[in-house]
């Protein structure tokens, strides 16, 4: 309103000086400046730099966290107090994400709204996203990029911040048995409950995957795995047929794929066509050897290929399979009609088996 009065005063002064033409020019220039002030241009985001792991004192942990298991009431209290402090610290940055009819989780890692999630949650780059924080506050944004092979994804809140956020960690000091916190929104955001938190330990560390006994469920995908310093060290990617088999994309995969995640979008992408799901007719679990077939359905592609329960999948199309989640993701990315070449270990023998995938029948998974 102050700007408007300034414009009117300028016109009056010009008229008193006998210059109507000058008044019109002054009015046009001033009005243009006022409109520019009243309607700011859409924000332009620079390509973000690779996140830098937060520095921590590795000795800054209670003694209970260095033991194979708690041995006293003091240990349990130390763990409880540390977990309670961490949950209060990091939970404001954990978000539920909604993309059309699908949902998942994510975690904000910068004040301007960068959000890490799983690649399969993001669908494709440039898609609008609704973010919901634990307190029920919502924000708008979009997907920035994804890497399907690593299952890494990046989103961005486009509403003005600043936003609650957490730091990222690294895994060079991680060890089997380290405690970890898994946060997320299983089943999607629910205003009637608090953010779901699970405490567990790292039970497997391999290139491209971290496995914990922090139980995760559908809807947790894309949510963060924290170390005991409150840093993100992984993103939930998959659960197997057993809820004790919980897999996370290591934070290092995000560092390695950052250029792909932040590549500029030109021209804007078109939504990929919906494709039918491929059907194999088997279930897999992890064991000491790796990926084991736990169930073969009758009259399925798996049974027709003479696969058996107890077979171990060593390779698919020449690519080594270390965990069941890798095999399940491979199947999810295949299409009906594809023929997969499997290397199977049955007893002491290694066998080559071809399996032709079919369209997903109704009522099957």
Polypeptide structure, described:
This protein has 365 residues and is α+β, with helices and mostly antiparallel strands. It is 22% helix and 31% strand. The strands form 4 sheets. The chain has a 6-stranded antiparallel beta barrel with strand order 1-2-3-6-5-4. It has a 6-stranded antiparallel barrel with strand order 7-8-9-12-11-10. Strands 14, 15, 16, 17, 18 and 19 form a 6-stranded antiparallel β-sheet that branches. The protein is globular and about 55 Å long.
State the CATH topology of the largest domain: Thrombin, subunit H
Note the run of SSEs as H and E.
Answer: HHHEEEHEEEEEEEEEHHEEEHEEHEEE
CATH architecture of the largest domain: Beta Barrel
CATH class assignment of the largest domain: Mainly Beta
| N→C terminal distance | 62 Å
Tally of contiguous helical segments:
8
The low-pLDDT segments are 1-44
Instruction: Output the radius of gyration.
Output: 27 Å
Summarize the amount of helix as a percent range. Answer: 10-25%
Mean pLDDT: 81
Strand content: 25-35%
What structural category characterises the helix and strand content? alpha+beta
Biggest sheet descriptor: 6 strands, antiparallel, barrel
Number of strands: 20
Number of domains: 3
Quick one: overall form?
Answer: globular
Lateral arrangement of strands in the main beta sheet = 1-2-3-6-5-4
Considering the chains and any ligands shown, give keywords for the structure.
365 residues, alpha+beta, Thrombin, subunit H, Pdz3 Domain, six-stranded antiparallel beta barrel, 22% helix, disordered N terminus
């Amino acid at each position: 309103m102050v700007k408007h009065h300034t414009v009117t005063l300028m016109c009056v002064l010009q008229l008193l000086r006998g210059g109507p033409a000058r008044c019109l020019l002054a009015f046009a220039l001033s009005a243009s400046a006022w409109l520019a002030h009243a309607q700011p241009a859409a924000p332009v985001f620079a390509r973000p730099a690779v996140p830098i792991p937060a520095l921590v004192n590795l000795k800054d942990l209670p003694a209970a966290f260095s033991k194979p298991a708690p041995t006293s009431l003091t240990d349990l209290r130390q763990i409880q107090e540390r977990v309670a402090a961490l949950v209060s610290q990091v939970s404001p940055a954990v978000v539920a994400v909604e993309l059309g009819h699908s949902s998942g989780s994510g975690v904000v890692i910068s004040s301007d709204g960068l959000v890490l999630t799983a690649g399969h949650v993001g669908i494709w780059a440039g898609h609008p996203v609704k973010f919901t924080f634990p307190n029920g506050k919502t924000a708008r944004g979009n997907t920035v990029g994804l890497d399907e092979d690593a299952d890494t994804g990046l989103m961005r809140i486009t509403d003005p911040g600043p936003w609650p956020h957490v730091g990222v960690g690294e895994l060079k000091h991680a060890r089997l048995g380290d405690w970890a916190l898994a946060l997320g929104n299983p089943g999607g955001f629910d205003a009637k409950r608090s953010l779901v938190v699970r405490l567990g330990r790292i039970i497997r560390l391999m290139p491209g995957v971290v496995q914990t006994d922090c139980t995760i469920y559908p809807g947790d995908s894309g949510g963060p795995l924290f170390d005991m310093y409150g840093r993100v060290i992984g993103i939930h990617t998959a659960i197997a047929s057993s809820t004790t088999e919980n897999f996370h994309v290591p934070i290092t995969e995000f560092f390695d794929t950052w250029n792909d995640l932040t590549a500029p979008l030109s021209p804007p992408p078109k939504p990929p066509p919906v494709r039918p799901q491929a059907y194999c007719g088997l279930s897999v679990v992890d064991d000491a050897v790796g990926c084991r077939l736990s169930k073969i359905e009758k009259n399925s592609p798996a049974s027709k290929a003479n696969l058996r329960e107890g077979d171990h999948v060593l390779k698919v199309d020449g690519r080594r399979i270390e965990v069941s989640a890798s095999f399940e993701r491979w199947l999810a990315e295949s299409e009906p009609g594809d023929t997969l070449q499997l290397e199977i270990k049955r007893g002491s023998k290694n066998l080559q088996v071809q399996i032709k995938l079919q369209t997903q029948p109704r009522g099957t998974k």
